[in-house]
Amino acid sequence: MVANPERRALLADAGLRVLSSTGARGLTHRAVDREAGLPEGTAGNYFRNRDELLGALGERIFERLAPDPARVEQLAEREPGVELATDYIRYIVERLTAQPDLTRALFELRLEGSRRPELGKLLRATLTSGFRLDGEFNAQAGLPGGAFEIAMLHYAIDGLLFDLLTTSIDAGFDIDEVVSTLVRRLLEPG
Amino acid sequence: MVANPERRALLADAGLRVLSSTGARGLTHRAVDREAGLPEGTAGNYFRNRDELLGALGERIFERLAPDPARVEQLAEREPGVELATDYIRYIVERLTAQPDLTRALFELRLEGSRRPELGKLLRATLTSGFRLDGEFNAQAGLPGGAFEIAMLHYAIDGLLFDLLTTSIDAGFDIDEVVSTLVRRLLEPG
What we know:
The structure is a homodimer. Chain A is mainly α. In chain A, 75% of the residues lie in helices and 0% in strands. Chain A has 10 helices and no strands. Chain A has helices at 5-22, 29-36, 42-46, 50-65, 69-76, 82-98, 100-113, 117-140, 147-165, 175-187.
């Protein structure tokens, strides 16, 4: 079979829609074919088993959640400091809440990764390298905080996104105020 | 049918084991009967449909994650302050990581709640009242931080637990140091 990256992406996007509407529960190769409007067996040609299918969805999520280079360039021109760090984090929250299905799918896959060692290994490699790159970027850009601070902020923003995009504790505070306070207190305390 | 709270709890515990090993995907009334070693149809007598089953699992998680009254009493005897607040949070992290299947099941249910309005409503009511009670407790105990700080800390600890119990970013820091720094910086900044 000739590899067709566009069709692969189209199938992965269909898989993400299935994952979002039914959870991991309804995600089968057949459901992906149906959602993509393609003949039965197509998804099976691209992803040989469930681990490959789930892994492909993971990769596709990171592709689709990637920042717009123009926005990043604009940010990169500014003076480093806690204000700029806040705007970087605001932009992450903006992107991830604007695509709630993708962000929820990532949470689903991370949970599924704790049950499926193959998927877990693949996702963990991506997440770990993302975390390391965040640290390098932060240092090069002269932004406040080291790896320890970035880890704490990562947990806090993940927990906030989980609350915003799944069943909420309904704390009722302004999200932007939560985000900017988290950044200030965690990156530049005292 | 005579209601039997012990059998109901036994079925819910079986459901939580199914949810943990297969995800929401494998959770059916039939799988619950099988896991509990009870005749087919038993779970159906207690939980009439999927929403009732999922709701019962949610209730059972909160029952099983509840603190040990003796530990809480010990803590309540101490001087209020950031050290005591840290020990309360440490005890939450200790409980939730000691029962990883339950905590993962709660994440699963919160995700499922974003797709199933009935379940979402039920879970949200429990989470919201839990958050309010945390705030009242904190104020009565004279601990640092108000509702805003408690919300931020809640997000951060949720994100940390999600990382510890699912697919991790592998930041590699000492968990207790992460927890105590989060509490200090978020509850008592500057």
